[in-house]
Known about the structure:
By secondary structure, this protein is of the alpha+beta class. 25% of the residues lie in helices and 29% in strands. The chain is globular, with a radius of gyration of 21 Å.
Amino acid sequence: MSIKPSDYEQLLAKYSNHHEAVELLKLYRPYLEMIPSMRRSEESLITLPLPVVKLRKVPLIQQLDWVSPITATAKTSLLPCDLAYLMCDPEWKIKMGGEIIIFIHRPEEDLSDLLARWRQTQVLLDNNYEWVMPQYYQHIIGEGAEHVYPLFVLLNQTPARIVQGLTGAHLPFVIAPVDRVHLNELILPERGTELSDL
């Protein structure tokens, strides 16, 4: 059985919620332990679906004892990942620690496609960057971290070669459950029933 677009959309919506994000990280404990406060997880974990970063490149000319910026360029880019989880100190309201980058297995995506998204993310985040924060988190400074950690979210329908490839590359992954509504579980109106009768 192949992965349906609705499976992907469901997982993206589900893990955009910080409570579900915590449940996801429970499947991979080393990352769960990165959350600053489990009692205040809502203030400790920021979820960014389809995250955007501002890449900053500042060419410098050094003359003797001083460094002067000649030009400053910034480029805003959509990362090829699905979610970013940022850690935040619940007391000081500042971003801290590493950043967890989530890659959900997409429909029609094979191992090379999945790995390429991670590699492209690595290349982009190798620059000086800051996260473009949503309005709700505008008060938090979104400077990039020194450590970026990937987590691949697979489904039961994910081919074994992808599991084998991620295992061989020593990249962490989890198998996420998808709640599917089967046709026999739907309550359909009887034939001849008008919509106005419902």
